[in-house]
Amino acid sequence: MTNMAKTLELHFTNGLGKTSKLTIDNPKEPVNKTAVKQVMDLVIAADIFGGENQSLVSVKEARLVEHNVTDYEIV
């Protein structure tokens, strides 16, 4: 059985200049870019991830990723 799995990846830059990623499975489509940006800004403002120097400080990018998944029954 093959199915198409989609995820929305939200990429942020943290206080160390590295990329941090949040992934959302099965996002509502079509993806509303304005809403995604607003949510990413809220995540940054909430400052609930990371720690000293690892807090999310800026939006880097968002992308919709499609994965083809094939399940094999093992007998």
Descriptive overview:
The longest helix is centred in the middle third of the chain and has 14 residues, at 33-46. The protein has one helix at 33-46, and strands at residues 2-14, 19-25, 56-70. Strand 1 and strand 2 form a beta hairpin. The two termini are 15 Å apart. A three-stranded antiparallel sheet has the order 2-1-3. The mean pLDDT is 92. The chain has 75 residues and is α+β, with helices and mostly antiparallel strands. The chain is built from one helix and three strands; from the N terminus they run ββαβ.
Task: Please give a handful of descriptors for the protein shown.
alpha+beta; 3 strands; 75 residues; three-stranded antiparallel beta sheet
Distance between the termini: 15 Å
The radius of gyration is: 16 Å
Q: State the low-pLDDT regions, or none.
A: none
Q: Bin the helical content.
A: 10-25%
- Strands of the biggest beta sheet: in what spatial order? 2-1-3
Question: Mind sketching the topology for me?
Answer:
Layout: E1 2-14, E2 19-25, H1 33-46, E3 56-70
Antiparallel strand pairs: 1-2, 1-3
Would you summarize the structure shown here?
With 75 residues, this protein is an alpha+beta fold. It has one helix at 33-46, and strands at residues 2-14, 19-25, 56-70. 19% of the residues lie in helices and 47% in strands.
